[in-house]
């Protein structure tokens, strides 16, 4: 992360923490209190930088976090994040000492896994995953006896129970029926466990779309990922979003080289683009290794001086070329917007996802690796400066 900051003069992500605050308050219109907010910050907070975001979220009053892996969880603890940290995915039972040491909460992926964890002889906190129809993690919801066994394992302290909705983003009637069925199956098992006097702890089933489309489910936590970042999974989802969310992330670069290329020359690998006249080409220092999808080759565009510049030729690993023939006064060092706003134009991550036949979540989660991040508008960082000075 610090090493990456040396590359700020190349391409960078700009993360707006005022937008984070705005999105939390928008989402809070659907939740009874901040205790119900679980921020999903897996994959380095969907590419936004988990440590910085969690500090800001704790400052805003959020005290529950979810990640996918043990390393992601440890990174947050080492950065002094105090809140609950739930690992949503599998952790190798050999690592149970780390779960204990860092006071992490492990997801129980099924009863056999719970027994193996328990055999390690080290006390840990867990949430039990229940499969209500997605068939990814959890014992089946009708496997009550197997699930009940987990509560009797002496080293596992059960602090919660959850399930995951798999079509809560889709609003046709069969998807709505299926979601209602999942919710019903989930609460049926919770009722049974309660009747048998087990303390089920925190109950949760909604992710972003679960909360947006089914806000009234009686839960203790909602696991909010994509909405926290102010983004919809797709352009189509945008129309149905009842909240007004703001994207946190912009992706900026600059022109490092301008060149004139004659008519009938080709640009880049594979010679996939041929000039139709004498054209002005700008070289931009960003490529697919920075997380930009290669599928934008010859079909996406960037913004320069508030105007669209088409991506021409194949996107390379670290660089790409754009056509700036029609942009007046264009110069080396001009700012290039790949995601974000420039004058009256904007490119949303949803546009890029649509163009690449994927969802925003995938695009965002791939951007975090090599690009340095610049944070603006954060209250936590300001407090730190005040404390230091
Ligand atoms: C990733 C994930 C979430 C967050 O999903 P969003 O759609 O981004 O809000 C919630 N729950 C689980 C189990 C997840 O894996």
CA-to-CA gap between the ends? 24 Å
Helix-strand category: alpha/beta
Mean pLDDT: 95
Low-confidence stretches: none
The geometry reads as elongated
Helix content: 25-40%
Q: Write down how many β-strands occur, each being a DSSP E stretch of 2 or more residues.
A: 21
Name the ligand types: pyridoxal-5'-phosphate
How many helical stretches?
Answer: 13
Sheet of most strands: 10 strands, mixed
| Rounded Rg | 24 Å
Provide the β-strand percentage band: 15-25%
Short description:
The chain has 389 residues and is of the alpha/beta class. Helix content is 31%, strand content 24%. The chain binds pyridoxal-5'-phosphate.
List the helices and strands and how they pair.
Elements: E1 12-16, H1 17-28, E2 37-40, H2 42-46, H3 50-60, E3 64-67, H4 70-78, E4 84-87, H5 96-101, E5 105-108, H6 111-119, E6 124-131, E7 139-140, H7 144-150, E8 156-162, H8 173-195, E9 202-204, H9 208-213, E10 222-224, H10 235-240, E11 249-254, E12 257-261, E13 266-267, E14 273-274, E15 279-284, E16 301-304, E17 307-312, E18 320-323, E19 335-342, E20 345-347, H11 349-355, H12 360-367, E21 373-376, H13 379-388
Bound molecules: pyridoxal-5'-phosphate (PLP).
């Amino acid at each position: 992360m610090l090493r990456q900051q040396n590359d700020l003069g190349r391409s960078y992500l700009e993360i707006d923490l005022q937008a984070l605050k705005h999105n939390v308050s928008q989402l809070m219109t659907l939740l009874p209190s901040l205790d119900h907010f679980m921020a999903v910050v897996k994959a380095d907070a969907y590419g936004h930088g988990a440590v910085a975001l969690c500090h800001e979220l704790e400052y805003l009053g959020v005290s529950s976090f979810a990640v996918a892996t043990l390393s992601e969880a440890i990174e947050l603890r080492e950065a002094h994040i105090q809140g609950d940290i739930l690992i949503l995915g599998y952790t190798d039972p050999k690592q149970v000492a780390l779960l204990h040491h860092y006071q992490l909460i492990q997801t129980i992926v099924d009863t056999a896994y719970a027994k193996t964890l328990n055999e390690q002889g080290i006390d840990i906190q867990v949430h039990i995953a229940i499969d209500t129809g997605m068939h990814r993690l959890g014992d089946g919801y009708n496997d009550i006896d197997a699930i009940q066994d987990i509560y009797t394992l002496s080293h596992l302290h059960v602090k919660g129970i959850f399930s995951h909705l798999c079509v809560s983003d889709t609003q046709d009637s069969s998807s709505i029926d299926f979601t209602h069925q999942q919710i019903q199956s989930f609460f049926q098992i919770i009722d049974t466990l309660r009747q048998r006097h087990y303390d089920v702890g925190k109950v949760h089933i909604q992710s972003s779309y679960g909360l947006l489309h089914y806000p009234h489910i009686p839960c203790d936590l909602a696991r909010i990922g994509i909405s926290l970042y102010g983004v919809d999974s797709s352009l189509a989802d945008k129309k149905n979003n009842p909240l007004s969310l703001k994207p946190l992330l912009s992706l900026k670069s600059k022109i490092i080289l301008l060149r004139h290329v004659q008519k009938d020359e080709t640009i880049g690998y594979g010679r996939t683009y041929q000039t139709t006249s004498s054209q002005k080409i700008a070289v931009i220092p960003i490529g697919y290794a920075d997380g930009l999808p290669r599928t934008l080759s010859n079909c996406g565009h960037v913004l320069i001086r508030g105007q669209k510049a088409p991506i021409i030729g194949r996107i390379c690993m670290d660089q790409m070329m754009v056509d700036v023939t029609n942009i007046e006064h264009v110069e080396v060092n001009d700012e290039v917007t790949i995601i974000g706003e420039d004058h009256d134009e904007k490119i949303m991550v949803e546009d890029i996802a649509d163009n690449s036949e994927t969802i925003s979540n995938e695009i965002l989660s791939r951007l975090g690796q090599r690009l340095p991040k610049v944070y603006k508008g954060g209250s936590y960082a300001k407090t730190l400066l005040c404390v230091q000075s």
